[in-house]
Design goal:
D-amino Acid Aminotransferase, Chain A, domain 1, magnesium, elongated, 892 residues, Pyrv/PenolPyrv_kinase-like_dom, ATP binding, binds magnesium ion, eight-stranded mixed sheet, Glucose Oxidase, domain 1, ATP_grasp_subdomain_1, Pyruvate, phosphate dikinase, binds adenosine-5'-diphosphate, 33 strands
Length: 892
């Protein structure tokens, strides 16, 4: 520990990038941050990058550990880098002739778009602004840069409200009779700077700092502080980003996109991040700086138009695009600036994309020879496939829908909802069970929560790379941006479009793939899975070794899962089958019965229903295995708890209401999840098992007669001891034999009998349990509940605290706890197979559809995972990724 501390102290804090030298070879992204590492890398491969230096994330960590103080030696290291910059650029920091200006930029190891603040034009003072005006022979530009600095510095470093700045700006615009920022003349900018300084002094009580090094130090600190603002913390929570040291700080010499009509700034993707098309995609703004594009203040032009403005720059940009793609072998999201016709690269990072784009890009890049199949498979975030499986608007319904207006197709999807006008409102109404669309003029990082909970996002300004668009695409949330015909009045909670007004109760439909905004609820239809998606699935199947089954209780779900590629049912829950109208009455009668005889009579009436369900499912699965779990929940769950309903039942089955209520009371348990449920029910009431097994066997025979190869597997839940399973297995075998005899069927049914492993004791004694089981299926929901001792229905009372205090890395019910619960799984597999070499082992908890858990299942050698029908494609891909990650090769 002591050693580690000493090492951290002496670690290099600052890395330079530029013509003089580019340091940081082999230093990880975790230390330099994504932005810093890529700035150095672009410099190294010869791209035009303004020189600068990166202060590491370790310094951010030291800053917090040292009680929010910058390490003492940092200022010295920074001063040295500034000196190198001055030499390289032949400019001087704070100079009254030709001043060096820098930007101060955040940059963590994981990109957090718009989450942290950038300060531009740092180094300008009352003296150096004159120097800049003289050196560039452009007074307007110099004061435009200065007012931006005062504004950003006030905002980011001093936490000022940007309102007061905006007011001052409006006054100047009014005075000069202009509406656009760019039309304010030089004299206006000079006056604006004076006004801004006055606002600054009034709100902070201090003068705007005139020492550039002081400006720099305060800005560096502000970037470190921005790491822990509530919006940054919230973003990391939502995105599940954990375990980072902090943010790096990039100090980079300025280039100016605001020097006139031969200058500009832009952002672009090397390919279309929305649909994956291999077409350069982005936007630029003439005579603008920095965040003007992303903030959506003015509407930018598409990059394709750039050749009309400056052919040479456009050509160079296209070449850089190709260089970057062949260097990084992936789609890049870039930021650039043109200063008087010279192009500079300011950022590159892996481009976030929608699920559909990820699939297309992966396939295209294999075709282009840029990457191989395993890389293509590994690169698609398995969970993002969900987006491709979502419904889209039904073509016919869309044809007859009223299109109110059209915005930019910023993030694909079909969203239907009522209008919410603030992020907070979107969160509250969604929590209350409503579907809402978040409608904003433009979104900002403060809106994250609302954007996350809304079904879709609609903005009236901003382009394809605006904040709303970028964030929505990252989440696969439907977004239509820049629908300029919509007038939004957030205060009055209404929008006006096409002469009509709509409010919080009105429902609109957004098509994120076309940008259309439609009136009312437009019907959606199921997706078609072909082309590139089918190709990815085919490749996935060639690499994965895990089988993929599904959890399904109905023929419709079974069929859907088969269409998605499921190779069987890993969990068919029978309790859901008892809730339908007619059946629940008989079920209750059975449960309320006090005599075995009455119980058997009720069960006999349930038998045909159950048999019919199984025939339906076996038929839908066409010869694929179907694991049927015998009745699992405590019986008490089927009974009504209010006296009125109890009286009704009493009447129905002809007993007194008092009798019903006393039986309900008798069945009450203080801890039902650990009570009379699972196999314990069959121990007490063997006739329930008999009925269920009879239904399964009769259904199988019926299918065989119709030449449908039913592959039934009978699963006995909640086993904790081998003796339980021994007893129930014998009972099941007897029943199978009896049904076959009754039906005079002497063919082979090949019915397997196995158990769920969901009680820790079953895992611990798996070698004994396996004597009586032909298969195991890990029920990791219960296993997690019982291993942690957390009630899975009540975990939300404390889980948020456990996550925020990092006691747990993730919700253990969502992602399998490999180090704890995982040990039981691994032990169950090993011990089980030590008794029965060919034991089939799978998993059927929620974890079966979670990519990280699937990786674990692959590593411990399970035969299959089982998940909900919609997650089957995700599981196929995740299983392939697990195989590839663990050194697997393509199957012959
Ligand atoms: P974010 O992480 O929010 O994208 P950046 O640090 O990338 O923030 O800064 C935002 C924008 O500021 C950049 O896209 C770029 O246009 C502008 N910018 C940053 N540094 C410089 C610089 N040295 N010269 C010119 N513009 C800059
Ligand atoms: Mg950026
Ligand atoms: Mg269970």
């Amino acid at each position: 520990m002591a050693k580690k501390k000493a090492a951290a102290k002496s670690a290099k804090m600052v890395y330079y990038f530029g013509k003089t030298k580019t340091e940081g070879k082999g230093v990880s992204k975790a230390i330099l941050g994504g932005k810093g590492m890529n700035l150095a890398e672009m410099t190294k491969i010869g791209l035009p990058v303004p020189p600068g230096f990166t202060i590491t994330t370790e310094v951010c960590d030291m800053y917090y550990k040292g009680g929010q103080k910058l390490p003492k030696t940092l200022s010295n290291d920074v001063a040295k880098c500034i000196a190198t910059l001055e030499k390289e650029l032949k400019k001087k920091f704070g100079d009254d002739k030709n001043p060096l200006l820098v930007s101060v930029r955040s940059g963590a190891a994981v990109s957090m778009p718009g989450m942290m603040n950038t300060i531009l034009n740092l180094g300008l003072t009352d003296t150096s602004v004159v120097g800049l005006a003289n050196a560039t022979n452009n007074e307007r530009f110099a004061y435009d840069a200065y007012r931006r600095l005062i504004n950003m510095f006030g905002d980011v470093v001093m936490g000022m409200d940007h309102h007061s700045f905006e007011e001052a700006f409006s006054k100047i615009k009014l005075k000069y009779g202009v509406s656009q920022d760019t039309d304010v003349p030089a004299q206006g900018m000079i006056e604006l700077c004076e006004a801004y300084k006055a606002v600054y002094k009034k709100e902070t009580g201090e003068d705007f700092p005139q020492d550039p090094l002081k400006q720099l130090e305060l800005s560096i600190e502000a970037v470190f502080k921005s790491w822990n603002t509530s919006r940054a913390v919230r973003y990391r929570e939502v995105e599940n980003i954990r375990g980072l040291l902090g943010t790096a700080v990039n100090v980079q010499s300025m280039v100016y996109g605001n020097m006139g009509d031969d200058s500009g700034t832009g952002v672009a993707f090397t390919r279309n991040p929305s649909n994956g098309q291999n077409k350069f995609y982005g936007e630029f703004l003439i005579n603008a700086q920095g965040e003007d594009v992303v903030a959506g203040i003015r509407t930018p032009q598409p990059v394709a138009e750039m050749s009309k403005w400056n052919r040479a720059v456009y050509k160079q940009l296209l070449e850089i695009k190709d260089t970057l793609e062949s260097h990084y072998k992936d789609v890049q999201d870039i930021e650039f600036t043109i200063e008087k016709g010279d192009l500079f690269m300011l950022q590159t990072r892996t481009g976030k994309r929608t699920g559909a784009a990820a699939v297309k890009i992966a396939c295209d890049m294999v075709k282009e020879g840029l990457i191989d199949e395993p890389t293509a498979l590994s690169r698609i975030p398995a969970n993002d496939l969900t987006q491709l499986l979502l419904p889209s608007f039904d073509a016919a319904a869309k044809g007859s829908a009223t299109v109110l207006t059209r915005g930019l197709p910023a993030s694909p999807g079909a969203a239907v909802g009522a209008l919410a006008f603030t992020a907070e409102e979107a969160v509250l109404r969604t929590q209350a069970g409503e579907k809402v669309l978040l409608v904003r003029k433009e979104t900002s990082p403060e809106d994250i929560d609302g954007m996350h909970s809304a079904a879709g996002i609609l903005t009236s300004t901003g382009g394809m790379t605006s904040h709303a668009a970028v964030v929505a695409r990252g989440w696969g949330r439907c977004c239509v941006a820049g629908a300029g015909e919509i007038e939004i009045d957030a205060k009055a909670k209404k929008i006006k479009v096409g002469g009509k007004t709509y409010g919080p109760k009105d429902i609109l439909s957004l098509d994120g793939s076309s940008g259309e905004v439609m009136l009312g609820e437009v019907a959606t239809s199921e997706p078609k899975l072909s082309g590139d998606f089918a190709k990815i699935m085919k490749w996935a199947d060639e690499y994965r070794t895990l089988g993929i089954r599904t959890n399904a209780d109905t023929p419709a779900d079974s069929k859907r899962a088969r269409d998605f590629g499921a190779e069987g049912i890993g969990l068919c829950r029978t309790e859901h089958m008892f809730f339908e109208d007619e059946r629940i009455g008989i079920m209750r009668e059975m449960i309320l019965a006090e005599e075995e005889d009455t119980r058997r009579k009720a069960l006999k009436r349930l038998l045909p229903f159950q048999r019919k369900d199984f025939v339906g499912i076996f038929t839908a699965m066409k010869g694929l295995p179907v694991t049927v779990r015998l009745l699992d929940p405590p019986l008490h769950e089927f009974l009504p708890h209010d006296s009125k309903a109890q009286a009704e039942i009493a009447k129905e089955i002809g007993v007194t209401a008092a009798k019903v209520s006393s039986r309900v009371a008798q069945l009450h348990e203080s801890n039902p999840m650990l009570g009379h449920r699972g196999c314990r029910l069959s121990v007490t009431y063997p006739e329930i098992l008999e009925m269920q097994v009879t239904a399964i066997v009769q259904a199988a025979i019926e299918c065989k007669k119709k030449r449908i190869d039913a592959q039934a597997e009978i699963m006995i839940p909640l086993v904790g001891t081998a003796a339980e399973l021994k007893l129930l297995r014998e009972k099941a075998e007897e029943t199978i034999a009896k049904v076959k005899a009754d039906k005079k069927f002497d063919g082979k049914l090949g019915i397997l009998i196995g158990t769920m492993i969901e009680i820790p004791r079953a895992a611990l004694t798996a070698d004994e349990v396996a004597e009586y089981a032909e298969f195991f299926s890990f029920g990791t929901n219960d296993l997690t509940q019982m291993t942690f001792g957390y009630s899975r229905d009540d975990i939300n009372t404390f889980l948020p605290d456990y996550l925020s205090k990092e006691i747990l890395p993730v919700d253990p019910f969502q992602s399998l706890d490999a180090s704890g619960v995982g040990q039981l799984v691994e032990m169950g597999v090993t011990k089980g197979r030590s008794t029965r070499k060919k034991l089939k082992v799978g998993i059927c908890g929620e974890h079966g559809g979670d990519p990280a858990s699937i990786d674990f299942c692959h590593r411990v050698g399970l035969d299959y995972v089982s998940c909900s029908p919609f997650r089957v494609p995700i599981a196929r891909l995740a299983a392939a990724q697990a195989a590839i990650r663990n050194g697997g090769k393509k199957k012959k």
